[in-house]
Protein 1
Amino acid sequence: MGDEYFDVDNFHDPDHPYYLYPLDNPSLIIVPKQFNYSGFRGWSRSILFSLGAKNKLEFIDGSFVKPSSTSPLAKQWERCNYMISSWLLNALSPDIVDSAIYSKNASQMWDDLNERFGQANVARWYRVQKDLSIVSKGSCDIQSYFTKVKRLWDELDSLSSSGCTCDCTCWGKEKAQKDKKIQN
């Protein structure tokens, strides 16, 4: 986006990242469940979806740094940052809020949460692998069984974020696809 888009007059455009809707307020709950040390990856994806829908992702990924205090954009950036910080705090359990509330801005808060809770969990990866190896259709219908298996594979993919992403010859992607076919 060109600098002209960040003109103060464009703040009334709902597509502008600094725009706040009339119903946006600091007490807004943007995800259905507070993070309480369990399920960080799913919770963080919900946060990303919600902030993406509100056109506010740039505030937590570091794309929008605070303008200089003499800029006419500084006040609006601060308002958005305070709002997003409040939304993040509302999405955390009270004891996690106590450690996150003193972050300088929403981006720092998000980075800190990811650093503390977003690391690949080897124990969880092992547990998902084990669950995949013992899952059976049992008495549930085929849709329920497939949903359970797909959820486990999706979680395993998420936990294996450091996996092979290149076009190398290690066959990592091919092996993962074969494993999925065998499971199904």
Note: The CA atoms of residues 31 and 60 lie 16 Å apart.
Protein 2
Amino acid sequence: MTEHQDSFKLSCDEESVLELCIEVEEACAELYRYFERVFDDDRELSELWGRTAREEDEHAEQFRVAARLKGVGVEGIRNEIYAVQALLQTVQDYLERDDAVPSPADALAFALEVEVSLAEFHMDSVLNFSDHHLEQVFLTHLKCDNTHVAQLQEALQRWKQN
């Protein structure tokens, strides 16, 4: 490998962080699909869960693309592996629960908590880009994160009022 190629290689730790981010996004998509099925009798709520799950799938794909680029256009990756692992474990534990189906308000509150934590690990905070154009390509797909939080907050408020 040339010196130029070496400068684009991700370390094992950086690759691990990206892989964990993919797993978190996939786990969130799975959680939201679960909620979509559980609340399928409420069209508006079910559609919110389905739409949010698809957006998490898109986020996972963006992290896959970043991993495939092997560091091209990236200065570095924040190594937040323990925090990402903790968030992943929280979502997985929720999915593996054996207790009763959550109420819509409980599901929305949990998802809101997850989304607020998840925002810390999205592309704009995990990757430090050296290529502005590449950064814009990635970040364009992730601007819906604040929308997730706002939509979940609105839905939770509606459920609390009922």
Note: The domain at 3-161 is CATH 1.20.1260 (Ferritin).
Protein 3
Amino acid sequence: MGFFDKRRALLLEVIRLCTHTQTIDDLDEIFEGPLKEMLGYECFVCGTGFYSETGCYGYKYYSRNFPMEYFFELRNTHGGVDSPLMERWRESRKPACFESGRDDANFPADWVEVFNKYNLRNTVGHATLDRHGVVGQYFIFARLDEEVGDDHLEILELVTPSLSLALTQALGTEKNEEDFVGTVQILISKRQREILQWIYQGKTNWEISKILDINEETVKYHVDHAMTKLNAKTRAQAIGRALEIGAISAVKLAVNTEPHLKKAGKAPAKKKE
């Protein structure tokens, strides 16, 4: 089989496996199999993220051998993560790459120093975003066994839509990675997530204030701040974004809040039969 025939076969195999992916084990079959054979990487990290003006924040991620300490050094004052390579991707929305030594002059020296500190050698990455340009999936591969170039960029551009589908399916039931640097929990505080969850449950500001034993102005304050951080203009939009990035649960819990409201002097209105 010729080189191009083999690459075509591997591409089709990646796409085929992606359509059937449901679990992390399924992802392993892709990332440790045909995808690795095409790109020749030693380590990778990918996941679901959220982008705002204050940086990138992760929700869930899947990684093998990638030095996660690298991301801790990319943190900004807001707790998010950003890098010149990420910025380059946002400008073009095309796969981006970096080869240590060859491409140093095109990137800030302090970032190159951090990159080399973790012996990443070279890297190629791509991502997808939702229609709002906010939530998406990212894929970063490093320590490729040959100089990174156009072939790697082309492969990644072809397989990323399928990889995004597979990643979404496989991570759907996985636990949040709260220890990951730039986690979305840094972007939205625990209290803000709690209040958004109650709004999603259909509670008013007054009801939430009684349930959480805080005043209504405090509820409004936290909602306003959450909306700002999520780049949302309405509460409904904030709830939608919070659901998308996993900041709140899509499962509406059957919680009895009547005792809290009765204690406050107002029982919830009974639903009409």
Note: The two ends are 70 Å apart (CA to CA).
Protein 4
Amino acid sequence: MYVPLVSSMSLVKASPSTEDCEAISGIPLKGLHGKDELIWAANKNGKYSVRSCYQMLSPHVENRQAWTRVWKLNLPPKMKTFFWQVCTDCLPSKERLLQRRVSVWPVCSTCGVDRESTLHVFQDCVLAKEVWWSQNKSFLQVGATTFAAWADAVKGRCSKEELEQFVLICWSLWKSRNDKLWKNISTFWRGVVARGETMLAGWKEARVQQSDWKASSGGERGGGDGTQGKWQPPGAGVVKINVDAAVHSHGDWRGLGLVARNDKGSFIAGRSVRERGRFSVSTTEALAIREAVLWAAQAGWAEVIIESDALSVVQRIADSDGISYEDNIFAEIRHMIARFANLNVHYVQ
């Protein structure tokens, strides 16, 4: 629904719809004149993309928190991607291939008894049952009709370490299935478990070696590049403005804080702003930078450095061609920066 910008909060609050009131108050007003545009709200740059549409329509949105937990597991990326494929029934089991009209023998190559579905490979096959009975009994889910339902139960009741073990064994079971199908190599349950553990141990050892190499060669980013650590004064004649923003978690208020210091590190001035508006954190951080640019222009500072701890906002100010509400703010900031002799926006931790 298109909602025109309204500058009077009293008119906005007169709306009988709380949802509309919150939506309107969350639109940052532009300081520059510009035309109204239709935007795609599912993408932060306001432009339509297939990826954003897929994410919006995905049937797994309600499980996003659970999947965030999966992506943070201490496992190789290929294992986590594999687990997602299993849960979304994307693996080429014989049953799935038949559904796609691929001519294959439907019986499981491992047990040679039952029809090979995704759930059969990981739960009902003789090899799978032997593996799971040797492991944590919390993995056993009686009566699951799909792998996704079984995985949801495991994700909901297992610890992080147990979930890692579950994903690891599933990955190794699929490897065993492929070995039997394509190489006619049979694997006993001990071999399934051992292969997964060996692969994971090698991956973790490689990560430790990589970390040690970075530490010894200076590969990790240090404070010397000005992105973290102690505050550094700017060059001669330059004013540095540090900005920060906060959004009230239970209200419609936002707060901006700005501090300006000279090349000797001495305090020049400070400014704080508290306004109504249900803005996102990134929008509020962008408004803080815009406030700093306006402040610098009003004060007559020609050479300025603005520092913010919002990396994505700083990056989008430098390079953004979107049409969203936030992109309008970024365009306005770039327009104002062009009027300065020297003004730069930097990210700082």
Note: The longest strand covers residues 267-276.
